[in-house]
Design a protein that fits this description.
The complex is a heterotrimer of chains A (about 550), B (about 120) and C (about 210). Chain A contains 18 helices and one strand. Chain A is mainly alpha-helical. Chain B is about 75% helix and about 0% strand. The chains are: A mainly alpha (about 550), B mainly alpha (about 120), C alpha/beta (about 210).
Amino acid sequence: MSAEPGAAPPLPAAPNLAAPAEGAIGWIASTDHKRTAAKIGAASLVFFIASGVLALVMRTELAQPGLQFISDQTYNELFSMHGSGMIFLFLTPAALALGLYFVPLQIGAAEIALPRLALFGFWTYLCGGLTMYAGFFTNNGAGSDGWTAAVPLSNSAFTPGIGMDMWVIGAGLAVLGSLLIGVTILLTLFRLRAPGMTMLRLPVFSWSMVVTAFMVVGSFPVLVVTMGLLLYERHIGGVFSGSGGAIAFQHLFWFYGHPVVYVMFFPFVGAVGEVVATFSRRRFFGYRALVLSLLVFTALSMAVWAHHMFTTGGVQNQYFSLTSHLLAVPAGIEYLDLIATMIGGAILLRTPMLFALGFILQFLIGGLTGIVVASPPIDYHVHDTFFVVGHFHYTLFAGSLFGLLAGVHYWFPKATGAMLREGLGKLSFWLLVIGANLTFFPMFFLGFDGMQRRVPDYAPRLGDLNLLSSIGAAVIALGILVFLVNVAVSLRRRQPAGDDPWEGQTLEWATSSPPPRHNFRQPLPPIGSHAPLFDRRLAEEPA
Amino acid sequence: MKNGAAFAAFWGALLLILGTGLTIWSGGMGIGLLLAQGGFGALALALLQAGRPPQPRARLLPRFSLPTVVLALGLAAAALGLTAGLWLVLIGAEVALFALVWLAREIVAERRLPR
Amino acid sequence: MGTTRQDFEGLFSLYIWIGSGVAVLVFAAVAFALIRYRARDGRRPSRRSEANLLEGLVAILILAVVALLVTRTFTTEAAEDESRATPVRIDVTAFRWGWRFTYPGQGVSVIGNSSANPTFAVPADRTVSFSLRTRDVIHSFWIPEERFKRDAIPGRVNRFDIDFEGAGSEEGLCAEFCGLEHSKMGFEVFVLSPASYERWLAAHRGGAA
């Protein structure tokens, strides 16, 4: 293998001892990171649709006061599996899959660091997800204690049955799988960068994956261990009993439970950064400031977890309130950089850019309401109410999902070789904007006015806002449907994308669409910054 | 340092500072340990990284790896057996063991091939 | 020193004003960028790609706002911890799925559940000091009109004070998911004048209502 700058390092594929055959074996057991990432993406999409349907059922029940067609027990399973599915089985794996696919391409690598580990991680996650959902078919139903499974509610005395056990095991497996994917990505970033790509020449998205992987490695093992402990508690007991047990469990859970929401954020803010730069026709503004704020932001995010526990009376509220407020500083720098990239640019409002703008403005609402609840006296009112439900749906749905869609619309041509339709893309965007805001904005008022979380019914005076929210959910469903139609249509009647349909700035646009098995056939362009193709285009411009 | 170790060390150091702050502010509670495990883990990663050559070594890879998949399925079955019953733990463990041996053979075979 | 609710309102207003201000600023900046910097023929994007001084200033500015918010939060929390003299004491026990309210030393105890929510009374002019326990899982004692809740955690007693505002009947809810009838586990509080409160106590002496 050559160590000359600019040389693509194509590795010969070792002949398998059996004759290599694509087809089914290829899809099941391929070591190609692009295949593994595609499988994670496909699985997470299925879990997204399943968990989304659960939400639509809930919103249909909640549209009017009174219990119409759902029992209390069923409702408890619905909201538990909705949250668990979205967090453990959809958005976290999807975020990591985006990195698994595009990090090697962005850093000029032929493969990831530990392909078998990533493959193992996918299957472990998939088994975890199927195990969790299979709980619906058991006697006592699926897991029904929220995605947070607080003890003692989640022990076998209060939540008996194999379905809850399957939830615990499923969550452990899914998070273990995600952990291993994160490890693979981190080692890839450390070890397989092309010659000339120093850490401070990593593209914006790849830097966001570095810090995401740090959080994964730092916090996901704790969840896996905690699920093991919970399973032990359910079958043998004695782990979380005693007066500190309930609080101890929450510390262990939220130590993972907070960083995971940032794992579901940073890859998407990275993707949005790439999109904003590309569609403003400029380099990303404030690269070094961004790197510093990514490091500080993610380190801080590991130290805020007990802000989920302000009302327990058992934690040091002031410390966690302080660290939670401090998150505003690096967040503000990132916003400054995104907006400064646009100001002075030449902005093209194509679909990826629309979703990026949606992310920027809507995540802001989620982030600001996050600062609001970082104040314990305020949290004493709105904790565990629909105010918080509104807050985290603004960050995760109106924020992260829009960021994911920005990345998907941006990178779909690279991964498939086909362009997505602009018209359908714009339609899906506007439906989702209207739907998201209609669904989640009323929740701030519902929560403030006295609607607690995890209830199938509420006081009649809250009926109108709930109806509005449920209508919004239907609009969201329509928007997602249009997106799926867009994908289907675009794959059937392909508009060829070519290597670089957007005039991209980073190395993935220097290879074919889709990329070959080992990513690059041609030698790489010289790497002098985090935007090598932008540099090359600039150098070739007539003066 | 060019190979990422400095950044892992910086991040780990931040965690240790935050953990120390928490321990002091809370009067010595054990939860500072959570941040400590993250911080020391990151520092350990940095140390491991610091000693590595910055350029990737050539490696041979198989196009696909069935034993990896079977290993994952076996371990998942064993995990499910923790609630379904000992029978499933044993089946899963056997499958996993078989897959582990298969995987070891796969790795050894590719190491033997000429570069 | 104000009521619990007044402490909340002042703090919440500050946060909402600042948050709204930031939101307006960011929306305006984005709108400005979209209007002024749309791609046009001949438009050449700026080549400038960093301004570390600006970044530093913005960071310091945000830090200043954070300092203001955190200080105000900490002082509000401290104010909430102060109480007027001679509080009324009420022991609250949460269970699946109802509440018991006991007035120690008064011989009054009220209990209710999801079929018949309990009601208890407090005087409007005195601090009420609650001791909150649970018999089983985690519950949460929430009175939305007072802008306050506290969790009931197994194995511990959570003590907190509320200075009730105004007069009348206020809704109470369980705000921590506790299983099947979590949504039906409500209660009611009567905020009464001192005289009415004494009459209520007298009427309820000698056993659970």
